[in-house]
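Researcher: Following up on the earlier apo prediction. This time include the ligand. It's 2-acetamido-2-deoxy-beta-D-glucopyranose, with the SMILES given after the sequence.
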Amino acid sequence: MASPCWRRRALAAACLGSVLLLLGAALRALRPAFESNAVGTSWLGGKRRSPLQTLYDLDQGPRSALAEVHRQRRELLHRACSRHTRRQRLLRPEDLRHVLVDDARGLLYCYVPKVACTNWKRVLLALNGRGSGDPRAIPAPDAHAPGRLPSLADFSPAEVNRRLRTYLAFLFVREPFERLASAYRNKLQRPWGAAFQRRFGTDIVRRLRPHPSPDALARGHDVRFAEFLAYLLDPRTRRDGPLNEHWERAHALCHPCRLRYDVVGKFETLAEDAAFVLGLAGAPGLRFPEPPPGARAAARDRAERLFRDISPFYQRRLFGLYKMDFLLFNYSVPSYLRLR
Ligand SMILES: *[C@@H]1O[C@H](CO)[C@@H](O)[C@H](O)[C@H]1NC(C)=O
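Model: Understood. Below is the ligand-bound prediction.
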C-alpha cells in the first residue's frame, strides 16, 4: 500500500492545473515506480536512489528515532491542515517562487528568510560543486544572487508536476515570534539594515508616528518594535500587497497545505534536521554550517524581551496574525505571551 502521503503528493501536483486529466495516470505511475524501483534505476543512470526513495525506504523499514520524529511532524502538519484550512484557491506559478530546485539531486527546498536560508542556499550550491564543495566558502551575496538556484516558478506546469512527484521537498521553519524579532533586529534596528530602513522604516514612521522628526522621516532608522508591530497589524499594510518575505508567515511563503513537504525541518533542531536532509540527499559528509554557540539562546531571550513590552492587546492580535504558523508547525504559545 502506498501511504496517504504519496497519494497526497500526486493530488497536490494535480492542483496546479492543466494536469487534472493526468491525475489517474500519476497515481498509477507512482506506486509501481516505488515498488519496482523503476525510478531508482532511471535516477542518474541507476547509480543512486533518489532522496525521495531513500525517505520512502526509511519509512518502510524499522525507523530510526529521527525518521520517526519527521514522520510525526509530517502527520501533524497534515492533520493541522485538514483541521484549520478551508477551501483553498488553486496555486499559481508565482506561489512557487520560494521553492528552489536542485535537479541534480532531486530536491525542492522552500526557503523562509530568517531560518538559516542563506546557509541552505550555500549548501545547495555546494552540493552542485560551487565553492569547491565547501558551503562556508560561498559569500552570502552569491548565495542570494537571483537565478543562482532555479525556482519552481520558472517551470511549466508539466515540469512542475514532475518535480513535485519525484523530488524530496523540504522546508525549515522557526518559532514565529522569534523569527519576527530576528527580522526586526536584522532589518530595522541594526545599522546594517540601511536599505530596509529607507524602504520600510521611512514608511512606518510616516504612517504611524504622530510627530516624526525630519531625520526619522528621511532615514527610517529608529523604528521601535511596537511601531513595527503596529505596521504589521495595520490593515493598509496587507492591502498594499503581500508582506515582505522577512516577516511574511512561513505558510504563506511555502503553502504547506497545498504542496507536499516530505521533511519539515526546524531552526530549533537545525543541526540534526539538516544532517537528516543531507543524509537523504546522499551527501552525509557535508557539514551544515553551524551558528555560533549561544546564538539561539540569545535570539530567544531577545524575542522575549521585545515582546514583554508589548501590550496584551497587540500581543493577542499579533498572535492571531501568526497563528497558522504556530498550529501547522506545532509551536506552543510562548510563555511570556498574555493572551487573556
Ligand atoms: C508537538 O509539540 C509537543 C510539545 O512541545 C511535543 O511534545 C510533541 O512531540 C510535538 N509533536 C510533533 C509531532 O512534533
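Model: The pocket of 2-acetamido-2-deoxy-beta-D-glucopyranose is lined by residues 72-73, 76, 330, 332 (CB under 6 Å).
Researcher: Noted. I'll compare it with the apo version next.
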